[in-house]
Design brief:
Length: 449
């Protein structure tokens, strides 16, 4: 059996025979990166021949044209007396459907696009993005001028907005940014960037932060950041500094220096990426803070063919939301050349930390970054906090032996789960005991701490 040398293509498929179901594949390849399909050839590239060649040479191109409206190059070849068919599918610049269904080849799978995924695909094929869609029932009065002024101030400070632009009326400014259409109607991007309450229009415009202990079930505390996305990164950083991350103190001469435990500029770049490239038809952005690492997740996967290695190397910028990306560029928050991960790499290398890991995960992008030498510090802080809590529990029991765990939680100001955890430690250490059941029983301090 002779082996063929396949034509160069990003995708090559080998099929031993023809079935009309492969029209779905052709549709999927036309919507993706194109492909070459061989019929009468096995997976080892060996020509095994195909039956009814004359009929197929007529049927295949006709069915492709009549069902999808595209023309594929269908060629007949022969090797060692066996005939096989080559079908060359080019990438289409418009969405292609087969029997009113849209297929897309992603990796090694053929997917039928539906709902938000189909909407995103059609918009992309048309050279538009979701944030370019007009929101019919919103007006300029729904925008927060202070958010616009913040944007203009940052853009002016970073040399990307002129002093003249800072004094433009809101409507003219929005026109210049492409955030309003010819009829004066706001686009989705305008509301995400500058609305007084973006959550009124898009429920997923939130940034959830959670501090976790030993596992996913051990949620210690959490916060939700809301508001416009142009100021969201600032709000997240402020919250992280206040509650979640450590700012070690160093001295340079007589100057006291407090720097975030992870490189702040690089962290901002990661936050900007999560905000700009998020699929706003999906769910909120999520940040999980653990003892020794941080996870940031946003809905919407990386561009097709992009990996962590791609991002850290030279690559083109492919923003999911073009208008949002343009506004962040004008504000001076990002570059327009895909250089963001270069800044992230330089920041983490300078801090002596490993590169953040970037990967597709659960329909979105997850970035995992290591915290700097904080595990021991966190453990010591946790031990001190636990000791203080335990001492307060003992004092409360001495004052009221019948006190409940819920009352302890309210007095001390922590959740009931933490109270229960500390009580168990005290019981294990034989410092306190429970006499009787939950109802009618009481606590006793049996050993001084």
């Amino acid at each position: 059996m002779g082996k063929i040398k396949p034509r160069e293509s990003q995708n090559v498929e080998y099929k031993s025979s023809w079935h009309d179901k492969y029209l779905e594949w052709i549709c999927g390849f036309a919507n993706a990166q194109g492909a070459v399909m061989y019929f009468g050839v096995n997976n080892d590239h060996e020509v095994i021949g195909i039956k009814n060649v004359d009929r197929l040479m007529e049927d295949i191109p006709n069915k492709i044209v009549t069902t999808m409206g595209i023309v594929a190059d269908v060629n007949l070849h022969e090797m060692d007396g066996l005939e096989y068919i080559e079908v060359v599918i080019e990438t289409s610049n418009i969405p292609i459907n087969y029997k009113d269904k849209y297929y897309y080849r992603s990796g090694s799978t053929m997917q039928e696009l539906r709902g938000p995924a189909l909407q995103q695909f059609v918009l992309k094929k048309m050279g538009r993005s979701w944030d370019d869609i007009v929101y019919e029932h919103a007006t300029i009065d729904d925008l927060d001028r202070s958010a616009i002024d913040y944007f203009l101030k940052k853009g002016y400070e970073n040399g990307r907005i002129t002093n003249e632009e800072r004094n433009l009326p809101t409507e003219i400014l929005l026109q210049n940014l492409g955030l309003i259409n010819e009829e004066g109607k706001l686009k989705n991007a305008a509301l995400l960037l500058f609305a007084k309450s973006p959550q009124r229009y898009f429920t997923c415009v939130r940034f959830h932060i959670g501090r976790f202990g030993v596992n996913e079930a051990d949620l210690m505390f959490q916060d939700v950041i809301e508001g416009n996305i142009i100021q969201m990164a600032d709000r997240v950083i402020d919250m992280l500094k206040a509650k979640y991350l450590i700012m070690p103190i160093t001295f340079k001469g007589m100057n006291r220096i407090e720097k975030l435990e992870v490189p702040e500029d690089a962290l901002r770049e990661i936050l900007y990426n999560a905000i700009i490239h998020k699929d706003y038809t999906g769910v909120h952005i999520q940040m999980r803070v653990w003892n020794d690492y941080i996870e940031i997740w946003n809905s919407g996967e990386l561009p097709v063919g992009y990996t962590s290695e791609t991002l850290y190397g030279n690559h083109s910028s492919q923003p999911r939301n073009k208008n949002i990306a343009n506004a962040f560029f004008k504000a001076g928050f990002i570059d327009a050349w895909g250089r963001g991960y270069k800044k992230i790499r330089e920041g983490f290398e300078g801090a002596g930390l490993p590169m953040p890991k970037v990967e597709n995960f659960c329909g979105g992008v997850r970035v995992t970054l290591q915290r700097k030498n904080v595990v021991e510090s966190v453990e010591k802080t946790s031990q001190k906090t636990s000791q203080k809590t335990s001492q307060k529990i003992i004092e409360l029991i001495r004052n009221n032996a019948e006190i409940t765990t819920q009352e302890m939680a309210e007095y001390i100001g922590i959740n009931r789960r933490n109270i229960t955890r500390n009580i168990k430690k005290l019981q294990d250490q034989k410092i306190i005991i429970r006499v009787g059941g939950d109802k009618g029983g009481h606590w006793e301090v049996v050993s001084p701490q």
